[in-house]
Amino acid sequence: MELTSTSFLVALIVVTALAVLAALLLWNRIPGPGWVRWPARLLMIGLCQLTAICVVATWINGSYGLYSSWDDLLGTDAGQDPGTMTGPPVGRARFTQGGDGTQSTHFRGSHSKLAGQVTVWTPPEYSAPGADRTRFPVLMLLHGYPGTPRTWIDLGNIPGALKDLVDLGVVHPFIVVIPEIYPGGVNTDCSNTPDRKIADWLAQDVPDLVERNFRTLPHPGGWGLMGVSTGAFCAAKLPLQYPKVFRAGAALDPDPLTGDPEVLPDPALRERNSPMWLVEHTKKADVGLFLATSAQDKDSPPRQLADFARAAAGSGVRVKTLVRPVGGHNFQTWIGMYPDALGWLSTEIAPPTG
């Protein structure tokens, strides 16, 4: 069972209840002398506590999205060198159908030379009768750190939440693309560094892959981004760096918009890859950015959204901000931001065109 699945949490709750029930039934029925009974009772108490702690820890992990998989938790997929990751060239990438309606592939990008996973979901309208010539806008979703593309599906209720908004008529259908944002296991805040060209991976390799395999609208008017936490930082900066690829980005609870010294220690590299520096040095870019947070989020304080909006004044960048009164740095809060963020993206990005 997946670490973040409901079935795993339910199984833990059942095991906890059985452990408590067994302790109650067996407490006075353990045979043998006292030096045997009391250690057995302590063992039963310890088992009850352990299972209860596991239930609480799993619930917290599901609420805050701390670890999205067993590999994430155990660190078994971290620190891989991109050179050891073998993926086919973009033109020969093969998508595998998943049971949840998604398609996934593992490929090596021709620009970045990095290899990683990309998950794609197409809306029901994509395969509807008579839609074989219709081209669809693309929404690229960027997960946080730590995280994987599955984070959006297991914790973020994608594509379910998106389909509901489309049915309500407040959002138009998108092809959803969910790539790894740090292929090779090293986070660079979606930046190109001397060792890893992750910006090229996200802004060139992944779009090339999707364009070759799906009916997409052209750049940049048909392409947008939405990210959470570290992915939100990336969703704010990539349209500024690649305005010919992405028309808009929605950043939900972004990491510090001036950059993180622990991620990019080089001050010059960090500055030139920060949304704050980029928006101050962008002139007349046809780009829109939606930035959202909550008044209670200490990791993404409302102050930085106001500072960014002031810095963007006169740049030509369209900025919209949202500050919710309550909410933490987790998917419960971010899902509540979907209607505003996705509704805004639907005004910035072109609808399907047949």
What is the structure about, briefly put?
With 354 residues, the protein is of the alpha/beta class. It has helices at residues 6-26, 34-64, 70-74, 150-154, 160-168, 198-213, 230-241, 267-272, 275-280, 302-312, 331-348, and strands at 96-97, 102-108, 115-121, 138-142, 175-179, 223-228, 248-252, 288-294, 318-324.
Explain how this protein is built.
It is a single chain. The chain is an alpha/beta fold and 354 residues long. 40% of the residues lie in helices and 14% in strands. It is built from 11 helices and 9 strands. The protein is globular, with a radius of gyration of 23 Å. The two termini are 41 Å apart. Mean pLDDT is 90; it is low at 77-86.
Which structural class is indicated by helix and strand composition? Answer: alpha/beta
Q: What does the radius of gyration come to?
A: 23 Å
N-to-C span: 41 Å
Q: Regions with pLDDT < 50 over 5+ consecutive residues?
A: 77-86
Report the total helices.
11
What is the share of helical residues? 25-40%
Would you count the extended β strands for me? 9
Give the spatial strand order of the biggest sheet.
Answer: 1-2-3-5-4-6-7-8-9
Beta-strand percent range: 5-15%
The general outline is globular
What is the average of the pLDDT values?
90
Give the biggest sheet: 9 strands, mixed
Return the string of H and E elements: HHHEEEEHHEHEHEHHEHEH
